[in-house]
Amino acid sequence: MSERGDLGRPHPGAAPAPPASTGTSPAGRPGLVSDFKSRALAGFVLALIVVGLVWAGLQPFALLVLGVGLVMSWEWSHVVRHAGADLAFGVHALSTATAAVLAAMGFAALGLAAVLAGAIIIFSLQFGDRPLMSAAGAVYTGVPAISLLWLRSDMAWGFWAVLFVFAIVVASDIAAFLCGRTFGGMKLAPSISPNKTWSGTIGGIAAAAIMAAAFAPLTGSNWMMLAVTGIVLGAIAQAGDLAESALKRSSGVKDASNLIPGHGGFMDRADGIVAAAAAAALYALFVNPAAPGQAIMLHL
Q1: From CA 210, how far away is CA 204, in angstroms rounded?
Q2: Whole-angstrom distance, CA of residue 78 vs CA of residue 72
Q3: Which of 237, 242, 260 is nearest to 173 (CA)?
Q4: Cα 191 to Cα 189: distance, rounded to the nearest angstrom
Q5: Which residue segment(s) compose the domain that 170 sits in?
Q6: At what angle do helices 266-287 and 158-183 cross, to 10 degrees?
Q7: What pLDDT was estimated at residue 8?
Q8: Does residue 17 lie in a domain region?
Q9: How far apart are CA 92 and CA 133, in angstroms?
Q10: Measured between alpha carbons, how far is 177 from 283 in angstroms, rounded to an integer?
Q11: According to the model, what pLDDT value does residue 262 have?
Q12: How far is CA 293 from CA 21, 51, 146, 219, 226, in A?
């Protein structure tokens, strides 16, 4: 209500006031242009940093993985326990850091042992207060850190393998966002993530396949095999995104944090990477554990 009485009422016979701006795009999709611009800018800056450090070698890339892993450990504490630097976070962060350092030194198996130990200790500390979810955080941050560093440790193909995984997830994310906002349609899982649609999911997986196939002329790989790999990893990345949405919804949290403009937190940005990196490493483990990057790029 207006504090000045009749001044808040339209004059009789006056033309109705235009409706207030709602931030919708001409196509009726709310904030599509502005939302995409903020996402694109933040994503471009992150991409430059990531690609540069992946290219620089295992140790520089390990510093990035370590830093992101520690931030995600803090975000997990915020999402699951609505806490900050509590004792469980300390164990979580130490477990993730130890796993990343060991993987960078060539001891990925010992890194997995550190992750398991951290999860067990966190479970004991949080017993009676969502212990499984708290303990799962050590796995959520530790396993993808080990996976990415193990893939990068392949001197011949490590750079291409890690870049391949990142490119697939980024292409899938962007296409899913644009297709979902542009075409809309049937919701994928409205009880978990009301904004995700089947059109976005299909568009994201298709983009992942195209991006994967685009690596063929760069690496001399078979484009059909790469495209199939892109489809699988794209679908897994979408599932990882959905799983993180379910975690946040069950915890009553919208974003893991607000550290990345337009994206929320590092967990919100890296949910697809977490799932895709772990899946890629598992595949490489069965195909060629001596050369994991080659296993991803050449399937040999």
Answers
A1: 10
A2: 10
A3: 237
A4: 6
A5: 31-298
A6: 130
A7: 39
A8: no
A9: 12
A10: 28
A11: 66
A12: 50, 16, 14, 12, 13
pLDDT of residue 58: 96
pLDDT of residue 26: 41
Give the span between the Cα atoms of 135 and 119, in whole angstroms.
4
This prediction has a pTM of: 0.85
Residues 168 and 185: their CA atoms lie apart, in Å, by 24
> Could you tell me if 234 and 280 are in contact, meaning their C-beta atoms sit under 8 angstroms apart?
no
Q: Report the amino acid identity of residue 49.
A: I
> 97 with 65: CB under 8 angstroms?
no
66 within domain boundaries: yes
> Phi/psi at 189 (nearest 5 deg)?
-150, 75
- Helix/strand/coil for 36: helix
Which residues, 6+ apart, have CB-to-CB distance to 299 below 8 Å? 222, 225, 229, 287
21-39 average pLDDT score: 53
Neighbouring-strand partners of residue 187:
197
For 93-118, what is each residue's pLDDT tens digit?
Answer: 999 999 999 999 999 999 999 999 99
Total count of domains within the chain: 1
Decide: residue 128, CB within 10 A, 0-12 exposed, 13-18 middle, 19+ buried.
exposed
Report the sign of the C-alpha dihedral through residues 212, 217, 220, 225, in that order.
positive
pLDDT in tens, 125-148: 987 778 999 999 999 999 999 999
Q: How far apart are CA 167 and CA 230, in angstroms?
A: 10
For tokens 């941050």, what's the residue? 141
Two tokens at 176? 């899913």
Residue 14 lies in a domain: no
State which amino acid sits at residue 103.
A
Residue 76 forms part of a structural domain:
yes
Residue 250, Ramachandran bin (φ over 0: left; ψ between -120 and 50: alpha; else beta): alpha
* 14-25 residue pLDDT tens: 444 444 434 444
Q: How far apart are CA 277 and CA 149, in angstroms?
A: 10
| Residue 161, token pair as written in the block | 């393998």
Closest CA relative to residue 229, chosen from 181, 177, 293: 293
